Amino acid sequence: MPSMEGPTGVDSADDHDPVISFRGYEEGDIASCARLAQEAWPANPGVISSDSEVAGMQGYMEYSIGVSNYAEIAYASEGVVGFLFGRIDGYAGRPAPKRPALGEVPSIIASSMRHGSTAMGHLRFLWSLALTDLKLMLMTPRSDAVIEMFIVAKGQRGKGIGSALLDRYLRTARDAHASLVTVYTDDRMSDWRFYERKGFRRVRTFHDNITSHYSGAYTRGLIYALDLRTKTETV
């Protein structure tokens, strides 16, 4: 699944905007993160059942956090309202985990089995997932920082949470002397313009098999990159 970003803005603590705090990811956050992901990428009910959707998102969260050495949570009084998981080579004291040979497939299948669901294991789903993973492997530029999963709750977008999460990640990447950040998103369920406003440039576009399958409609996958040596993010 691609990263879902939040629009830019400035947080405030008036009667309408929540007071947002940031902290590192904790193991108990995974269910909340999966709910935000399910809200951000609602599956076409004619393609995927509700139970399978929950199982798939839980599995994808497990995979994303498993390959990340940077994981930050944004939370308010109601709980988790956003998060960003990523990899940063050279992050002091936090070596980047190795990616599983089969990508997220084992995590999603394992989660589906725990939830008593078999729909996510259908050959069409797995084939779509494998095709997208292959395209990403071939098309994504080699980088020393990768945004793995980035979501802001729908009801909290436009309040600066997404910008704050991304800016904090980019600052950490620069401190670790990373030179290039990459991210995969899509043109149907994500606000890809957010990355362009933040200084990223689009480097590849392709048919996104897994998001097309999941949403039930043709979707393009987008790969963006930010050169930390020459570009700075904008607000």
Features:
single chain, 7 helices, 235 residues, alpha+beta
Overall outline: globular
Structural class comes to alpha+beta
Distance between the termini: 26 Å
By CATH, the topology is: Aminopeptidase
Number of strands: 7
Mind telling me the C-alpha Rg?
17 Å
Count of the domains? 1
Share of helix among residues? 25-40%
Question: How many H/I helical runs?
Answer: 7
Can you identify the CATH class?
Alpha Beta
Topology order in helix (H) and strand (E) letters:
EHHEEHHEHEHEHE
Residues in β-strands, percent:
15-25%
User: CATH H level: which superfamily?
Assistant: Gcn5-related N-acetyltransferase (GNAT)
The biggest beta sheet is recorded as: 7 strands, mixed
The quaternary structure here is single chain
Strand order of the largest sheet: 1-2-3-4-5-7-6
Average pLDDT, rounded to a whole number, is: 83
Assigned CATH architecture: 3-Layer(aba) Sandwich
Unreliable parts: 6-15
Q: What would you say this structure looks like, in words?
A:
This protein has a single domain (21-227), classed as Aminopeptidase, CATH 3.40.630. The chain is 35% helix and 22% strand. It has helices spanning 30-40, 50-66, 105-114, 123-139, 161-175, 193-197, 209-215; strands at 21-24, 70-76, 79-88, 145-152, 180-186, 201-207, 220-227. It has a seven-stranded mixed sheet with strand order 1-2-3-4-5-7-6, with helices on both faces. Helix 5 links the parallel strand 4 (145-152) and strand 5 (180-186). The model is unreliable at 6-15 (pLDDT under 50).
